[in-house]
Specification:
With 91 residues, the chain is mainly alpha-helical. The protein contains five helices and no strands. It comes from Eragrostis curvula.
């Protein structure tokens, strides 16, 4: 059975599956540890619904999101003015 699956042809399959499982595990740990709506301990669950907007903002505006929102969103800068530019292009 092992000789059937452990071949160089299936290494990319193992790699992509491993990356997908890693991303899922990372998101699960992030939600359990930092999500303001998830309460694991009994004392925190007894608190009920909290109106803690600052904690929710910190959770939703995490570092990765702030990094990508600060970047320029022009993916094709050379083609931005092509339909409206009156100057002819050289062929």
């Amino acid at each position: 059975m092992a000789s059937r699956w452990i071949r160089p042809e299936v290494y990319p399959l193992f790699a992509t599956t491993g990356v997908a499982v890693g991303i899922c595990a990372m998101q699960l740990v992030r939600n359990i540890t930092t999500n303001p709506e998830v309460r694991v301990t009994k004392e925190n669950r007894a608190a009920g619904v909290l109106q803690n907007f600052d904690e929710g903002r910190r959770y939703s505006q995490h570092g990765v999101r702030r990094f990508w929102l600060s970047k320029r969103r022009d993916y094709m800068q050379a083609m931005d003015n092509v339909p409206t530019d009156p100057t002819p292009t050289s062929k």
